[in-house]
Amino acid sequence: MRVRFGAVILLAAIGGAAQAQSVSALKGHNSNAPVDFSADRIELQDRADRAVLTGNVDVKQGDMTLNADRLTIAYNSAQQTQVNRMDASGNVVLKSASETARAQFGIYDLQKRLVTMIGGVTLTRPGQGDTKGGRLVLNLNTGIATMDGGTVAGQRGRVTGRFVPPPRSN
Predict the structure, then answer these.
(1) C-alpha span between 32 and 41 (Å, rounded)
(2) CB neighbours of 62 closer than 8 A, spacing ≥ 6?
(3) Cβ atoms of 31 and 6 closer than 8 Å
């Protein structure tokens, strides 16, 4: 089954003091590209305009892949099944050609072209290092990736990371 994307999202807001920004390899990602998915099970909830995929969920759109234990796809059936939002939970992994983000939850807003990952987020760029925090927002329009520490049990978290500088000649 192929689905064409373009729609709306509300972001889950988790406050945080520390922030880090970088440019994502997903800048300019084609959110109108066809989406292929597979899962162990799919449940269509037509009256609620959503589909729930569970078990080894794999989603691919262009050069971006998403894996999770569960994915809820919200759509508008009045507009030829236009997908608005995808909510992923459990072992969420988002990959591009040069970076991998892992978290407990992920939200993909197709109209605003934002991906938000929440809960124990790690952004890895092989050979360049990694960054960890509570929330990551990837803006697919600008390519800006913003991470903050989030809040856990009323305590503000921090962004941590390791950057690997390139070899330099003296």
Answers:
(1) 25
(2) 29, 30, 33
(3) yes
Q: What is the pLDDT of residue 80?
A: 67
Taking only the tens place, the pLDDT of each residue in 50-105 is 999 999 999 998 888 999 999 999 988 776 668 889 999 999 999 988 899 999 99
Q: Could you list the beta-strand ranges (E) of 5-152.
A: 19-23, 35-38, 41-45, 50-61, 64-76, 82-95, 100-109, 114-125, 129-139, 144-148, 151-152
User: Which DSSP category does 62 fall into?
Assistant: T
Q: Write the burial class of residue 54 (CB in 10 Å: 0-12 exposed, 13-18 middle, 19+ buried).
A: middle
- What is the spatial distance between Cα 19 and Cα 135, in angstroms, rounded to a whole number? 9
* C-beta separation of 111 from 84 below 8 A: yes
Q: Identify the CATH assignment for 19-163 out of 3.40.640.10, 2.40.50.180, 1.20.1420.30, 2.60.450.10.
A: 2.60.450.10
Confidence of residue 11 (pLDDT cuts 50, 70, 90): very low
Task: Indicate the SS3 state at residue 17.
Answer: coil
> What are the extents of the domains in the chain?
19-163
Q: Rounded to whole angstroms, how far apart are CA atoms 74 and 81? A: 9
pTM above 0.90, yes or no: no
